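Thread: pyridoxal-5'-phosphate complex, take 2
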Amino acid sequence: MSSISELYQSVILDHNRSPKNYRRMADGNCTANGRNPLCGDELTVWLKLDGERIEDAAFEGSGCAISRASASLMTTAVKGKTRPEAEELFDRFHRLVTGRLPGDEVASLGKLAVFSGVSAYPVRVKCASLPWHTFKAALDAPAGAARQQPIA
Amino acid sequence: MSTTAAPAPAPAARSLDAARVRADFPILSRTVRGKPLVYLDNAATSQKPRAVIEAVTRYYTAENANIHRGVHFLSERATEAYDAARAAAARFLGAGDSREVLFTRGTTEGINLVAQSYARTNLRPGDEILITAMEHHSNIVPWQIVAQQTGAIVRAAPIGDDGELDLDAFASLLTHRTRLVALVHLSNALGTINPVRRIADLAHAAGAVVLVDGAQSAAHLGVDVGALDCDFFACSGHKMYGPTGIGLLFGRAELLERMPPWQGGGDMIESVTLEASTWAPIPGKFEAGTPAIAEVAGLGAALEYLDSLGLDAAAAWEGELLEYATQQIAAVDGVRIIGTARDKASVLSFTMDGVHPHDIGTILDDDGIAIRAGHHCAQPVMRRFRIPATARASFAVYNTMDEVDALIASLQRVRSVLG
Ligand SMILES: Cc1ncc(COP(=O)(O)O)c(C=O)c1O
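Output below.
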């Protein structure tokens, strides 16, 4: 498989074309904006937290295939997780896209493993991780307050 | 000089042998990701011919010394070479007097110098600076800073859907309050060539001075500051086949003489006491500290190289490349060209339906093709066209029609990978 087809796996292309959870959330209680000033990518992440549990997650914005697919799969993956579980997932995801996750741990990421090809493209790591950094900023934002997350 | 029996052809008729030109640029023979490098990011920075690389190496290997301060042999030689490069730069820009050419770090520094020295001392609250909606951030932000410092106001003339400056709107924004007009000669984001002379005439009639951002035009259009009738002209060595870290600022002598220095230090003074100092005459007044001597040597070599190619021939060849690429790219599904001005040069900015420019850039890179994807330091242009970014191929004298074909083939691959 060429590195391009490893980067643009069909799951990523599908989520780019029709992203999940792509909507403005009216009843969320945390939100944050993320932007990558280098390329102009922008997105907003909304969360609905019930105590420590993430009941719902959604996003909107403009970005490349990698960042859209990442936001789509991320919002799907964190739904139903507790805050520490989601943070731990982010940590593993980040190690995956920066090429620091041992091979035998990749499968534990489930569908998120489709981003393994990103590590061969250091400039694209920011694309994959921008939604996650924005998610983290939303988690840490006091209820109702929008947080700016300037660089992923 | 070669001697031949045949009469020398007129300079304008000199045609360009791209294969021969390519041989002058060592980097063009390398591969990237296993493919021959196709370098189409020339608006970001151009590659360097061997003559430039060797001039920098020669300076460090055999000539290194500081200028204007030694009585020894090497320092005298370095000073002579430095002054000779300034004279060559003045000829290149069409400046009558080499005292009107300052060495800077690049276009950005040249514009900031004019903002902080000329504009900051001359602008009063309510005065206006008129720019255009197609400026690079480096011809926006310095004016915003000086506006904050002085109470002046920055206005921007709009552009049309084709990326041409709206001249009527420009003329109506130009009033007795306008003290300075700053505009790009050749837009890095759109490829638009602005009618600088016409604008300068209008601006001068309104009593404003004119700064031209020549970052892109210096190597791709050719410049004659006399014919443009501008008061300031800024450009960057690295975009004209020269080194990074060096640029030129032309300023009319009578303006430069009245402007205060913007940095103080060695070399820019006439005399210094602990209480007060007096300034050196121009251009020294604006060149505090040890300058980029090696880079000046490299820039001098770049100007000589451009001269040997003939700027007219280079521009004509780049025009053919742009025209061919513009034609061919229409065959790629969903491509929209951003910037369709009648008068364009060297830049082809585009978007592709359903595909983000970053993804285009990554797949082209996999084929060894270097383009730029992003906002090109022109966020207001992106906003004007309601797009987050564009992909941009930008041509230089060493590019070939085969490389245009490679670009188009790779764009077809983008379509097949991303649908
Ligand atoms: C139109 C234009 N103006 C100004 C600049 C700034 O040039 P530099 O970064 O060399 O100072 C650029 C470079 O990208 C440019 O394209």
